[in-house]
Design goal:
heterodimer, A: alpha+beta, four-stranded antiparallel beta sheet, elongated, B: 306 residues, three-stranded antiparallel beta sheet, two-stranded antiparallel sheet
Chain lengths: 493, 306
Amino acid sequence: MSDTSQPLYAPREPIFPRRVTGPFRRLKWWIMGVTLGVYYLLPWLRWDRGPNLPDQAVLLDLASRRFFFFWIEIWPHEFYFVAGLLIMAGLGLFLFTSALGRVWCGYTCPQTVWTDLFILVERWIEGDRNARLRLWKAGWSLRKVRLRITKWLGWLTIAVATGGAWVFYFTDAPSLARQLVTLDAPNVAYVSIAVLTATTFVFGGLMREQVCIYMCPWPRIQAVMMDEGTLTVGYRDWRGEPRGKHRKGARAAAVTRTATAYAEVDTLPETGQGDCIDCMACVNVCPMGIDIRDGQQMECITCALCIDACDEVMDKIGKPRGLIDYLALVDVPPADRTGWTPKPLWQHVLRPRTILYTVLWSGIGLGLLFALFIRSDIEMTVSPVRNPVFVVQSDGSIRNIYDLRLRNKTGDDRQFQLSLTAADNLRIDLENSDTDTVVVPADSSLLQRIYITARPAEAAATRDRTDLRLWVESIDDGHRASVATSFNGRVSP
Amino acid sequence: MTSPGPETDSPRIVDEETGIDTTGHVWDGIRELNNPLPRWWLWTFYATIVWAIGYCIAYPAWPLINGATAGVLGYSTRQEIARDIAAAAESNAALETALASADLPTLAQNDALYRYAVASGAAVFRTNCSQCHGSGAAGAKGYPNLLDDDWLWGGAQDDIAGTVRHGIRNEVDPDARWSQMPAFGEVLTRDEIAALVENVRALSGQERDATLAATGATLFADNCAACHGAAGLGDREQGAPNLADAIWLYGGDRDSLTDTISNARFGVMPAWSPRLSNAQINAVATYVHQLGGGETAAPDDAAASQ
């Protein structure tokens, strides 16, 4: 190894993204407002479910194993809904990545959204890029200490609110808030808040792009989901190069100032000077600290802020927008541009691949919705006792034992009646009961053991297997459910 | 200068595309870029080393010949398990005390105690009883099925608890349930036993030789009715089985019946009172009672079984 080689380890190079305005920045402000607003406020939304159920609109009640989402209540055995949502999230990622590249990373990833918020606080307190650069280079002074402490306190406030909002999803928010203030909350609440506060502060304030580059697997995974037709943030080097200082009005008159006039721009005669004036605006606004003009790279989260920054400059120097733009590899023109026209945007997004993903995604979504609406508020599962498969009674009749799990998914106590249908005449008895009804309390399940008996003369008593169907019916509203099971008799040798 | 790579390259090669140094490692002409790791990653690595050293000092870590180093905190998984078991026992102490002196026939009215009795009784059953009676309590030849409605010594809660407490035909407990059927092979002739077998099959309504059964009826009245009753309905005071029902402990076929009458049977159950606590016996009796065959004690029966 040579003594002149680069170091094995490198410190983080601080990045001071400059403020930028433009349509993509506005879109990102809106997305930040909506996603953070939903995250912080959702636990406080109330939803009346009657006296026996919680009135929190979104509640993951781990202790009672219930998941409440507005009018939907998910029980543990219906966890396939969550699995279905995760599959939809996966397919959604395929869809969006194949159509729009790392659009999740650039706009909605919590790491991006919170980092954006932390940078906003940083800018309020320490000023824009140049002021922050100066402050960073300056030695420690009273002013620097004051600004740093103010900034960190601002970050800490956001971090605590983030960790605090998280725990409200798992229990009644107003009562937990009171407990947190009076220090009566469970330890797990304080620990969760502390851990999430720390991760929010460190990831959003100190590590930022390091999380995306070194800790997150998506940059690697998403790279293989993109193809030559995927729209992503790119630099029209054939238009911008050779870059150089701007000579006012050189070509301004020759082009229209519309963002969609690529074709005209791309077929302009070469003048020896590209449109890029090397103003570094795209580099200065980049939260990842890269130069988009080097081409597509792993670090780019496609936040599109460089598009806003460049368009601003292009407007100023009187050149068409879109030097940096959403474009795909197939948009790169061939060396001789004869007969070449760029593909319109919709052709990038609407491709067989993306249509297939959309069909799969919406198919699963419709399936989940269907499953959601055919759900019953009364459910039964049956597990026949297999050890032994039957019991001979003293009068020679054959008895089978079954454990029934009855679920009452409403907020009221209900009386359930049990019955059976079978080809043979079988008797049903409930353990510890002289009747065929049982009361299942509100929003709970009940284990009921039942006995089914065949008289010795009945065919089922000597048949190996007799199919039967157990029915449970709510006496109050007539809702019912049934399960198929079987009866085992004693086969004569 | 040496390099760990398969081939040695000249020092400091800079990659043209990226402007980044290579490590000097070359594989089939492919050079490895020297992208530096972030420094925080290195610090994280050092932190894990520091943590590991602290962990080795605080907790049991290094295996030695007679066990591992103890660690200054004195932590052990065995102690933790022992603490957990003690904590569970402590939290159940009130229920255990209540169960030890509970009135079994009315136990079901106390929902919490009843559920505790059934659950802990199931554990006691699996540990101590399932070896003979089976994990599903269905019994086997010579070991009664506890799920059906036929009981040799009574199927009310207190009857079952008494059987568990003192056992059957054991020499250990003076209060063990005791009875002994004589071996009629030394008393009756082969033909007489064959006739008796046909009569016993007639009592339970099975297929039989009517002529022989009629002969056997006299023999039954003389030799068997004292314990099994004139109609063969059995007698729970003596543990004499009901011969007129569909349930056979040793089998109702001709071979089994001939064997039973000739050589008699002597099923033994241990007395569990020294081994199991009162609460455990009450629990397992409650568990067995609710398996499906439990009987309700008549008031005088309950008094008699004490």
